[in-house]
Amino acid sequence: MTLTVRDFRPSDAKAVADLRRAALPFLLATPQGVAWQVTSAPPAQRLRSLVAAHDGRVIGQINAGLLHDSSLPGQSAATPIVHPDHRGRGAGSALLADAEAHLTAAGATRLHARTVDDPGSLAFAARHGYRPTRRADFLRLALAQAALPPLPVALPPGVRLCTGADFGADPRPLYEADAEATADDEPGELAADAVTYPDWLRTTWENPDIDLGLTTVVTVDGEVAAYTLAATDNRGRHLTTMTGCRRAFRGRGLAELAKTDALHRAREAGCTEAFAGNAAANTDTAGTAAMRAIPHAFGYRRCGGEVWHVRELGRG
User: Fold this and answer.
1) What's the predicted TM-score (pTM) here?
2) Strand ranges (DSSP E) for the chain?
3) Which residues contact 18 (CB under 8 A, 6 or more apart)?
4) I need a labelling partner for 196 at 20 to 30 A (CA). Which of 4, 141, 170, 213 fits?
5) 214 near 163, Cβ under 8 Å?
6) Domains of the chain: residue spans and CATH
């Protein structure tokens, strides 16, 4: 029985998607999405994707790259994923060691990683020198049976519901809203607050798992005010990758409107399960707390969790 760690190949995409679904059932994974993560990576990310194979079968995977879209220098991210049936046999350690070596050589000084919130995964992180920073929940909604709030019969003056596809000719307004909301609402040490428009097009707009027809955008007098980015996997699963509202439009229920419309669209398209993440912020504000409360108001319930960790590189 031989364990090998090697670079990801395009032919590995289906096996990695199967692995991710087995290890992280509260997230979406498709072969096209797995391949896109590698092929679309901006050069500044210095991404290296590795797989661990046991007797030729892919049982683990890791993407290691610089967080080039953060204003904090030296940041990087890598999280080993190992099939539940093959844990405790060295695959995770081997993947992580190669990822750390790659990132150190690329100039990273701090590595951020995530683990599933269970005793074994937390112990693995501690053994490798990672300290926990915060927890996040994964939430699930039985969309087929959910009692969704109705859409308003009439929208307020100037308010319009659009889809992401409506911005096909010029997605920049949606980029600007996403950049503002992400910088405000994502936890500080991992804030993607320096995302350029070309990188956003490559890594978000062109993501094959993003469903632009199920992505809802709320405009006010023609200006993007709030939005919900939706991903689907053609298996009846819907994932909210981000819900945001621009500062000038907060407190008017527009994020809830976007979420309501997106879930109705998803159910009409045949999605039966909806998933979302709910991460704690460094500094709780009324705005971030309100955004994290939205999924619970729709009936989402916790189905899993993760713990974010950090390790300083080059210090043993």
Assistant:
1) 0.89
2) 3-7, 48-54, 57-66, 75-78, 81-82, 110-116, 131-142, 159-163, 216-220, 223-232, 237-245, 273-279, 301-312
3) 29
4) 213
5) yes
6) 3-135+307-312 (3.40.630.30), 147-298 (3.40.630.30)
CA distances from 183 to 27, 33, 69, 70, 188 (A): 23, 24, 11, 9, 8
The pLDDT of residue 287 is: 52
Residue 64 CA neighbour count, 13 Å, CB half: 24
Give the whole-angstrom CA distance, residue 9 versus residue 38. Answer: 10
Residue 234 sits at φ, ψ, to 5 deg, of 60, 20
Q: What is the pLDDT of residues 93-109, one digit of tens each?
A: 999 999 999 999 999 99
Dig out the tokens for 58 from the structure.
Answer: 């892919």
Residue 51, classed as helix, strand or coil, is strand
User: If residue 23 lies in a helix (H) or strand (E), which one and from where to where?
Assistant: helix 13-23
Signed CA dihedral, 244, 250, 255, 258: sign only: negative
Give the residue ranges of the chain where pLDDT is below 50. 188, 282-283, 316
95-100-104 Cα angle (round to 5): 155
Place of tokens 């797989």: 51
Instruction: From residue 157, give the alpha-carbon distance in Å to each of 160, 220, 249.
Output: 9, 8, 14
Sorted by sequence, the CB contacts under 8 Å of residue 5 that are 6+ apart come out as 50, 51, 52, 53, 91, 94, 95, 98
How does DSSP classify residue 110?
Answer: E
